[in-house]
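User: quick one, fold this
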Amino acid sequence: MDIRIWTYILVGLSFGLYIGIAIWTRARSTGDFYVAGTGVPKIANGMATGADWMSAASFISMAGMISFMGRDGSVYLMGLTGGFVLLALLLAPYLRRFGKFTVPDFIGDRYASRTARLVAIACAILVSFTYIAGQMRGVGVVFSRFLEIPVEGGVVIGMVIVLFYSVLGGMKGITYTQVAQYCVLIFAYMVPAIFISLMLTGNPIPQFGLAADLKDGSAGLVENLDRLSQELGFAPYTSGTKPMTDVFAIALVLMVGTAGLPHVIVRFYTVKKVSDARGSAFWALLFIAILYTTAPAVSVFARTNLLQAVSNTAYVELPSWFKQWEKSGLIAWVDKDGDGTVRYDASGPAIEKHPGTTKVAPVFAPPSSKETRGASGERLLLNPPSASTNELYVDPDIIVLANPEIASLPAWVVGLVAAGGLAAALSTAAGLLLVISTSVAHDLVKRTLRPSLTEKGELALARLSAGVAVIIAGYFGVNPPGFVVQVVAFAFGLAASSFFPAIVLGIFSKRVNWQGAVSGMVAGMLFTLTYIWYFCFGFFGVQGDPSQYLFGISPEGIGSIGMLINFAVTLVVSRFTGKPSAEIEMLVERVRLPRAAFGDGDAGPTVH
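Assistant:
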């Protein structure tokens, strides 16, 4: 069977499994819908958290960015894994002891302020929609290639599937669906990695294969990639070019942004007690580490195979996978010198933006039955970049998905990777949709605007909110603001600059009041959002140049400065405004008490 048939079979089976689980675990109460009835075993919750955490950015885009960035790409590995440790040790147990469903719920009750709750709701929705844009793009990328349909059609299919099981099952359905999705995505990620490690180095363990010699004994794998890169004029793969301030800022944003992501935090409410929250974090980190320690090897395997298969090769001799991916609009060749051979060199970036757009993928001429082709048979572009002699344009989001084809692995492995990519994207999208629907139904309506709303009415409103949210998410999937991992980094920056200081100070400081928390969240979020928008999209036709970066920090890392602004504003405003009530101070004290002094459950009295 060919790749397309295997993809239909494996994707169809995985979707059938997800829908079956959603029906079996459908939510019958708000407790089931929001926190899965707080009865999820810690190992299952750790696996679900891993799937929720390892989004399309982790599965599809991260290894692709490392492939193109080399050593600089390791910032994503350091930041993301370090952030989970920070969340597990610093925040998760205390938030679980407080006993609230959502981050806006915690902020609203901790600061005893309706205004603080409303600001937190706005931040949660903004962060979630930014994050979900990356997931919907990931769904579109997978479908556009493997099912050979337009990206828009792939996004619509993903919207329908994720809407079905998230609306029907709520957190209960999502949790057990994510357990299945973790199994699918990790199997799909590891199988091709093991295959390619054996092919290149003879070592079946990808993490060890990364440091091994090539099978022919000519050189180490990484040393060989350095040599290939330099022969084409690129810097050695193991060298770094990013300013150290930017590397530090991005790593910090990913760490503290993790600790402020609402769809990850809510997972720690689905277990029975505080000790299970810590246990869930341990299992989640273990499950996540399997993929994250494999990603550097996958990036080196993919980059090596890509350079060997494409560079200085006549277009007519290119393998079939190149021409299939060419149809998706995520890889292209422009014959600038007219010799019919693919030139891939360092005279310009491998990825170039088109003037006046934020799009990075080549702009292809519209497909038709009489599609226009170039002299060598290549698909023509409407406005090919011309700033360099480099002729190859590759979107990093295809590297992991195309890797099995580049390495000539069996068709069933290619189909398995497609199923894994969809599992990664849909698992996180479902968690984010739940955050959005909960923010609207529970935090905004039930807790703020209409406290008399019945449980049945709240559940119906949550489902309706999820439906509206998935339509908006679909729009961002069709019109994404960048690569999957870039968009996710923006979401982390917004979470770091808004939620992290409010949560940390809310737990560890009795003196911080609602005026300080609100001022800090607004200041941090506005600064970060403005900076990202200016340098990525521009204002009134004026767009910032990288040479203007503040302290050399890119938009992906600017949330670290936004976080510091948030901390400073919060502490200063709190210092010059009234102290919180004695009841609030007692609540903070009780949340921080050890288990022996306060039991192993929730924090007790809730301040409204």
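User: anything notable?
Assistant: Residues 97 and 121 are 21 Å apart (CA to CA).
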